[in-house]
Design goal:
This protein has about 375 residues and is an alpha/beta fold. The chain has helices spanning about 15-25, 35-40, 55-65, 85-90, 110-115, 135-145, 200-210, 230-240, 240-260, 290-300, 330-335, 350-360; strands at about 50-55, 75-80, 95-100, 120-125, 150-155, 160-165, 165, 175-180, 190-195, 275, 280-285, 340. Helix 3 (about 55-65) runs parallel beside helix 4 (about 85-90).
Length: about 375
């Protein structure tokens, strides 16, 4: 019997284990030299911007909003077709998430929908670089500049992606990355705030550590959202490998494209002109009503898959009533049609062949 191919596979190798053990033996395990080194090294991935490590990607989004003084009475435009953390961070900051529709080809925020959603209360646009493909930062940036809005990127899924040659995380006031184990790189758990503004970065540093840089010298009200040195050490190891892993994901995606070429009703990902896709997920479209049975068929064939995201955020109980379904048609269509196939760098050529054959063996009927 063939080994089951999982939809995602976190990498924790001997290098990561040795780094974690080294830090634990050092006794300096919280907010120490490993965190500082991780921040400095990650900066090379985002055009030299200031980097501040925190305990999770959601924390990175939240602190970016708080540092930008976005809160009660303010609105932030976000996609509904994303993980709930995007909207959660806005709500936790005290602001109101305003949901805009997506572009059907890329699943990213539609600039036209963003423009239509702007009101006098809008303070920021939060594009999500979904599945590892950059949103259209040229058009979104122009809208933000025209209306005097901040750009805060949700780059949780897009380590190493770029738009027109500029890496994600290097646009606007701030960006947030996640280092959850299934991401293109991880630190077991963690996040990073990226910004071009040194004073903004200092505010993030205060906010993550009870409002202080020096012990007992609290300057503002802050949180306890520090990253451990153990996590940072793992992240530093992963950072040395992420470019190679991204290249492997891209190669795997190309093989999947070729393998699905004759499957008919399964549409592979579209890469926008100007975008570099790092394939956090390889997400196809399947005709509505057939997605779930295809997923069951793949499971029976030993191929894992996942649906990101079956319920748009605006339909979740915490955000019910925040948007009308009729205003988000592409969001609803995507949630009914998307299916993510394995693309992680641990896949072999034989695995990729099996995935393609499993999809093509499904009987779509007429």
């Amino acid at each position: 019997m063939s080994v089951f191919i999982p939809p995602a596979k976190p990498v924790i190798g001997e290098d990561e284990i040795e780094a974690a053990v080294r830090v634990m033996r050092s006794g300096m395990v919280i907010q120490g030299p490993e965190v500082a080194a991780f921040e400095q090294e990650f900066s090379e991935l985002v055009g030299g911007r200031h980097c501040v490590a925190v305990n999770a990607g959601t924390s990175a989004l939240l602190l970016s909003l708080v540092a930008a003084e976005i809160g009660a009475g303010d609105e932030v435009i976000i996609p509904s077709f994303t993980f709930a953390a995007t909207a959660n961070s806005v709500a936790l900051a005290g602001a109101t998430p305003v949901f805009a529709d997506i572009e059907p080809e890329t699943f990213n925020l539609s600039p036209e929908a963003v423009e239509a959603a702007i009101t006098p209360r809008t303070k920021a646009i939060m594009p999500v670089h979904l599945y590892g493909q950059a949103a259209d930062m040229r058009r979104l940036g122009a809208i933000a500049e025209r209306h005097g809005l901040a750009i805060i990127e949700d780059a949780a899924q897009a380590h190493g992606a770029s738009w027109e040659g500029t890496p994600v995380g290097a646009f606007g006031l701030a960006a947030a990355f996640s280092f959850y184990p299934t991401k293109n790189m991880h630190s077991l758990e963690g996040g990073m705030v990226v910004t071009p503004d040194a004073e903004f970065a200092r505010t993030i540093r205060l906010l993550r550590n009870q409002g202080m840089e020096r012990r007992y010298a609290n300057e503002i009200v802050g949180y306890n959202l520090r990253l451990t040195d153990v996590a940072a050490a793992v992240g530093r190891v992963q950072l040395t490998k992420v470019r190679g892993w991204n290249e492997q994901r891209q190669a795997n995606a190309a093989k999947l494209d070729a393998g699905l070429g004759e499957s008919g009703l399964v549409l592979p990902p579209t890469i926008a002109e100007g975008a570099t896709h790092v394939y956090h997920q390889y997400t196809v479209r399947v005709p509505a009503g057939r997605r779930d049975t295809l997923q069951q068929h793949l499971t029976a064939q030993g191929v894992g898959s996942a649906v990101y995201y079956p319920t748009p955020t605006h339909q979740l109980p915490p955000f019910a009533g925040a948007a009308r379904d009729e205003d988000l048609p592409e969001t609803l269509r995507a949630s009914a049609e998307v299916l993510s196939l394995p693309v992680h760098p641990a896949l072999t050529d034989a695995d990729l062949d099996r995935i393609g054959e499993a999809v093509k063996s499904y009987d779509f009927g007429d």
